[in-house]
Amino acid sequence: MNDTPKPSRSGAAVTDQDALDFHSRGRPGKLEITPTKPMATQRDLSLAYSPGVAVPVKAIAADPSLAFDYTTRGNLVAVISNGTAILGLGNLGPLASKPVMEGKAVLFKRFADVDSIDLEIDTEDVDAFVNSVRYLGPSFGGINLEDIKAPDCFVIESRLRELMDIPVFHDDQHGTAIIAVAGMINALHLTGRDIKTTRLVCNGAGAAGIACIELVKAMGMPSENVLLCDTKGVVYQGRTEGMNQWKSAHATPTDARTLEEAMKGADIFFGVSAKGALTGEMVRSMAPRPIIFAMANPDPEITPEEVAEVRDDAIMATGRSDYPNQVNNVLGFPYIFRGALDVRARTINEPMKIAAAKALAELAREDVPDEVAAAYQGVRPRFGPQYIIPVPFDPRLLSEIPAAVAQAAMDSGVAGKPIPDMAAYKLQLSARRDPIVGTLARIYERVRRNPKRVVFAEGEEEQVIRAAASFAAQKLGTAILIGREDIVRDTAAQAGIEIRDGIEIHNARLSKRNPDYIDNLYARLQRQGYLLRDCQRLINTDRNYFGATMVALGDADAMVTGVTRNYSTVLTDVRRVIDTRPGHRVIGVSIVLVRGRTVVVADTAVHDMPSGEELADIAEEAAGFARRLGYEPRVAMLAYSTFGQPEGERSRHVREAVQILDRRRVDFEFDGEMAADVALNPKAMAAYPFCRLSGPATVLVMPAFHSASISTKMMQELGGATVIGPLLVGLDKPVQILSLGARDSDIVNMAALAAFNVG
Ligand SMILES: NC(=O)C1=CN([C@@H]2O[C@H](COP(=O)(O)OP(=O)(O)OC[C@H]3O[C@@H](n4cnc5c(N)ncnc54)[C@H](OP(=O)(O)O)[C@@H]3O)[C@@H](O)[C@H]2O)C=CC1
Ligand SMILES: CC(=O)C(=O)O
Ligand SMILES: [Mg+2]
User: Fold this and answer.
1) Where is the Malic enzyme NAD-binding domain (predicted)?
2) pTM metric for this prediction
């Protein structure tokens, strides 16, 4: 396996300050609760609360299964910990565990649309813990126990499983075991091993370790082939020190006493212990083509670089996202609970776990979609030593894993509500996906494959420097900060931002390119009332002119700006330097992402009251933009009226635009004029059977700037939508303008969109 590429970090590493800022910014923490019903009127109140609420109360009292129909129970999982084994950091208590538990709760939501809340319980007493949880059954559809130390976790989980009629799942045990076994199945396949003759050493005999070896044995590895180790060394038959019944059950008759001795000739190493527990020497002593899963978090037992120093034939995985082969339970718990909840499973049993592991292993062997390539810096992974397990951003996880788990629950008789049509269920699962994940991941992947030089014009601003550092660290290209070098460096130092490789600082006044930039600007503006002196001043002192000219003359590929000045001023400046792309019209489009759907809205930036002709151009630009993003455009020309009713002056332009598009014979679906509900809601559209759109619109062309701007901002503020943009489309060179005070993550997204040349 000498052709195995050397392991490398993806470069998305974060600083301690990044992590603290991420957690404290805006509303502290990572989640909030939002209502699903309006609570606006007296009637709403009467329905949601007294007296209306009494009706579902009585219904549930008569038939408890109705709680799934009338409450959140069926989609709600509690992530519960006492903080006694937080990642590999040890017993730091319940309060300190809260960031991890909140994190798991948001991952449930993000990856599988499972609502989740963290509960930290302040006790190390097993009985008290069990009692705190057992009475919570009516609140939840499932219980995810987390980061509870062994052996307490074994007692807690088995007692709660007996006491509660919903799935109780200690993720550090079974989640980890499922993912590790999935990776192992593929690694065995790649190295041509038979599980029956393979020897495994598992370092860590706690929650994760015991569960991993139990599942491995359930998959067919003979007990005598498995050596378990802990802080005292090998768990051998007859050992008395540091033992408990769970370790004893896996004690082996062996002469090996230390991890070092155990590792000699071993085929597989599972590390679920602590940072640095495995040495290069031990790796050297393993069998040919060894399989090493160093899963301790946040730092593995050994790094891929350290393994690569001693041998080049290993298949290596860690629990981290910044190396290839992330063996982490995030690949399991969202989807396992999704499947279990959807069939109202009473428990998560062995067949469901094995089904999840097999489905994961199978996914890694299939061809991967674009978004998966994103996590591999544009190098499309292919099943092999560097890709034995799917990545967390793989969109297929959400349709495949829950379906496999649900099927296994049905087959093993624990499903309370079987799924009648699996194919339809898989489609429903895909629709649960948060679309922003896919859209941005695709763009990032393409930019990484073809990195660009991007100007960050307001280079002295802290959030811009932070964004530039992140852009460079994510290997999206070179970030060019415009500003005075000493000020940029001081601001960066004070904010704890490292100016690393991939960042350049350009001071406009000192640039050798100034004479050329001034000549270029003067040639463009001399007949618009500008003197040479004016152009000198603009290039020397105005970072937008300097930066845009860099892009115009090819010294950079794209630019982002606008954090410190208002949109229209910046747009005017930029358009003085950069032309409209021949045959195009400059417009602004916004991408609106709401659960389950993405729509493109135009024109959100440039034309105030567009004519029919201009609306037709806007439709063409927006449709082209949607295609470049990978969406099939179905363009609705919006108005307050639908096909002539009610009549009105403003709808006339929209009708005209439709006629113009007809004459132009454009190659995308369009129709109008129509109201927004008709465009977006198939039931409302059904009232107009002659409508030419084959489904809900994906592109909304607004009748005027005010309606475009108002509606997108309302969607953002009131509708919970994520709005990206306005993005400038139709310029000859890619420039994107940020909103005043944009945050670093928004700036990075815009820089990536500019580099992608989305416009
Ligand atoms: N990648 C992933 O998805 C997951 C990774 N993990 C990681 O696994 C590790 C263990 O977690 P968990 O099982 O929940 O914790 P537990 O506290 O339940 O168990 C820890 C086990 O590790 C052993 N151990 C600790 N340090 C060493 C060492 N230096 N050498 C040998 N054994 C050691 C302990 O030994 P003893 O019994 O003697 O005290 C104990 O058996 C953590 O680092 C965690 O981050 C956990 C879950 C998921
Ligand atoms: C990933 C995880 O659950 C852990 O490290 O504890
Ligand atoms: Mg954990």
Assistant:
1) 173-410
2) 0.72
Lining ligand 2 with CB less than 6 A are 87, 147, 171-172, 297, 319, 328-329
558 CA to middle of ligand 2, Å?
Answer: 40
The predicted complex's ipTM stands at: 0.98
Which residue type does 282 have?
Answer: M
The C-alpha atoms of residue 125 and residue 82 are separated, in whole angstroms, by: 10
State pLDDT tens for residues 401-445.
Answer: 999 999 999 999 999 999 999 888 987 887 676 655 667 777 887
Both tokens of 645, joined, read 């009713």
Q: Is 104 a catalytic residue?
A: yes
Whole-angstrom distance, CA of residue 101 vs CA of residue 146: 8
pLDDT of amino acid 11: 47
Residue whose C-alpha is closest to residue 316's, from 337, 295, 339: 295
Which residue from 273, 275, 292 has its CB within 8 A of the most atoms of ligand 1, so it is best to mutate? 273
Question: Please, what are the domains in the chain?
Answer: 174-327 (3.40.50.720), 444-577 (3.40.50.10950), 587-730 (3.40.50.10750)
- Express as a percent the part of the chain with pLDDT over 90: 80
Nearest alpha-carbon partner for 201 in 184, 226, 179, 178: 226
Query: Which helix (H) or strand (E) covers residue 591, if one does?
Result: strand 587-594
DSSP code string of 350-382: HHHHHHHHHHHHHHHHSPPPHHHHHTTTT----
Q: Are 398 and 430 in contact (CB under 8 A)?
A: yes
Give the Cα separation of 346 and 364 in Å (integer).
Answer: 29
